[in-house]
Amino acid sequence: MASTSPRSSTSGTLQRGKACLNCRRRKMKCDGVRPVCGPCGRSNRSDDCEYTDGQGRTRTQILEENIAQLEARIHELENPDSASASITLHDPHSTYYQSQHGSPSSGISLLEPSLFPSTSTATQSRGSRSSGTSSPVVGKFASLSPFEVDSQWTDEATLAGSGGPSLHSSVTRPKAWWETDDPPAQLVQELLDIFFENASRCTWFLHEVRFRHTALLPQGNASRPLPALLNAVFLWGIIFSRNDDLSAVEPAILTRTLSLLGNAVSTTPTHQVLQAIQAKILLANYLIRNGRFFEGRHQADSAAALAVSCGLHKIRTAQAVPAFPRFIDPVELSLPEPRDQTEEGERINGFWATFCMDRCWAVAFGTPAVMSDIEAYGMQIDTPWPLEMETYERGHIYNNLRTSGTVRNFLSGINAGWPWENHGALTQMSKASALFERATRLASSWRPGAPNPTVISCNVFRFMRDTELPNMNIFYADFVSVDTRIEEFKTQLFPLDNVDHLTGEALHLAHMTHCLSQAATMQLHSAFAQQNTASRAKCLAAGTAILRANVAVRVHEFTDISSVLGTIWAAVGRVLINELVRSLQGEPTHVPAHRDTELRAALDQLQATMAVFAPTYALINYHLGQVQQESRGI
Q1: DSSP tag of 4
Q2: Which residue blocks in 529-617 are alpha helix, DSSP H?
């Protein structure tokens, strides 16, 4: 059979959404050749590639559809009083739709203007907010304080101008799709396609193919995902679509998601708990992106607490049950055994995705992390590091593998976990998040008035002993250990000097991991940067490394990023500002005089990058305002 390729003869670039499912999961660039693409052929795959671009159904889709039909029939037989999905009902509104749109309701285009609320009112409500201050930032977040709740995202008045007959018309308007339990099937498929092209940017960990197939099952099917998760996916799909008509119904979808999420967790722990965690993560990222920081932090904390409550931090634990007697017999809330290794992989990856979010937001908002990691029974993180979903699918993980103290061992320099070296994107991200939070927490434990550190060989600090500081030796040992671990971790990262072969998802995660690891260095040495030359030099080197990473991946061309980058970039800005201030005041500085111009150029470049995302990301907008205010007059 001849191989065919959908590549353009002029650009040589595969069109969006045309990659095979295997290349998507492996985050590799696919050439779209059929029946077996180049990357899959080189990996000696025996099966043909599967595609979801509409050119015929895949084998998996056919099997899933057959299963869905059987499940639907079983549901009908078990619930004879419910409406049967196999019965075709007459559409009472077909005459109305045909008169309004010139075609039957089943043939209405999903982008028909009348399917959406009037965009004039929505555009006005989502436009730039007037500001009575001299805030330098622009967009819908102008003059937004870091703790202000922006009501424009929940005001359902934007739906008042929706199309169709008025309430006083002689014809009763049928419900619009955003007022029903499910959007039209074609729109669902389109939103799923758009979402999964960008899913990694809002922290997705569930199995994509399984979720896609269950999401398309008929309403009422027991295997369908939680409605709250479906609506959270639709919400992000609308954002990624950048379609003005779809954006007009965003407030309604958000309101529905918040309402459904309140009843998402059942009384008995099931696999749906994992879906609830996924929905809370998506919603937390959305709320923080839009300036609703309290609500976003609440959803993030809720996801972390739920993950710990159902034992996701103890997957494959080697920690034995305490032998000493206990008067209290705790209630077991753990999930039932996974059906297969893929479902176990969803749980492992789900825990680490939640861990990354918990650690990063703890630093960004200056609050304690929800997920503790101490040596008490039941409170230590034992779950092994995450793997790529394809590894779980192949069933190549060891059934008898048991782990203990995963994060604590990593911070101590002990490589524990899977028998093979694991440099997966989520693993690197999890380790970088752990270092970022640990460095911040350790630096914050230093108290002013302690003896000034002096520098010895290799820029390692030696702290003077003081009888009034009995924990000084402990702090010094922890400081050196974390500093060493951060530098070792940086050497293991994928270099960003040649990223042409990385896909969008892998590129975003690689850039984020580099920024977190460099930010860990800045956080750890921040307590001593004002007095110690070596710490100041390390902070400046880490800050400029983040700027180089921005340039290497062309971050200004990204359409979506993590809001945490706003916190990291603000730290870089303060490092640059401090060096320039020291130079202007005539104080000793690590930077030669001729480099002042370079520092100013770097600061301008950083602010320009933040300004690209400030109109869309509230947290970046807030930090940009702070950096601009602090940089005035230098």
Answers
A1: B
A2: 533-553, 564-584, 596-613
Q: What is the pLDDT of residue 4?
A: 55
Outline where 404-503 has alpha helix (H): 406-411, 425-444, 472-491
pTM above 0.85, yes or no: no
CA 101 to chain centre: 40
What is residue 317's predicted lDDT score, i.e. its pLDDT?
86
- pLDDT of 76 above 80: no
**Token couple for 528:** 């001593």
pLDDT at 101 over 70: no
Q: What is residue 110's predicted lDDT score, i.e. its pLDDT? A: 42
CA dist 499 and 481 (Å) reads 31
Asked whether the beta carbons of 602 and 545 are under 8 A apart, the reply is no
| C-beta of residue 287 within 8 angstroms of C-beta of residue 216 | no
Residue 86 Ramachandran class (φ > 0 left, ψ -120 to 50 alpha, else beta): alpha
pLDDT, one tens digit per residue, over 202-240 is 899 999 999 999 999 988 888 899 999 999 999 999 999
CA nearest 315: which of 394, 386, 375, 410? 386
DSSP 324: S
Question: Of 400, 287, 271, 294, which is closest to residue 343 (Cα–Cα)?
Answer: 271
Question: Mind listing the pLDDT tens digit for each residue in 345-364?
Answer: 999 999 999 999 999 999 99
Which of 559, 581, 557, 561 is closest to 630 using CA atoms? Answer: 581
Tokens of 200: 């990694």
Q: Which of 88-102, 385-399, 476-490 has the highest mean predicted lDDT (pLDDT)?
A: 476-490
Query: Within 13 A of 191's CA, how many CA atoms are on the CB side?
Result: 25
Q: How far apart are CA 316 and CA 399, in angstroms?
A: 9
Output the CA–CA distances (angstroms, integers) from residue 538 to 256, 325, 524, 526, 591, in the order listed: 48, 50, 10, 10, 12
| Spatial contact of 418 and 384, defined as CB atoms under 8 Å apart | yes
Q: Is the backbone peptide bond immediately before 419 cis, with ω within 30 degrees of 0?
A: no
Distance CA(266)–CA(276), nearest Å, equals 10
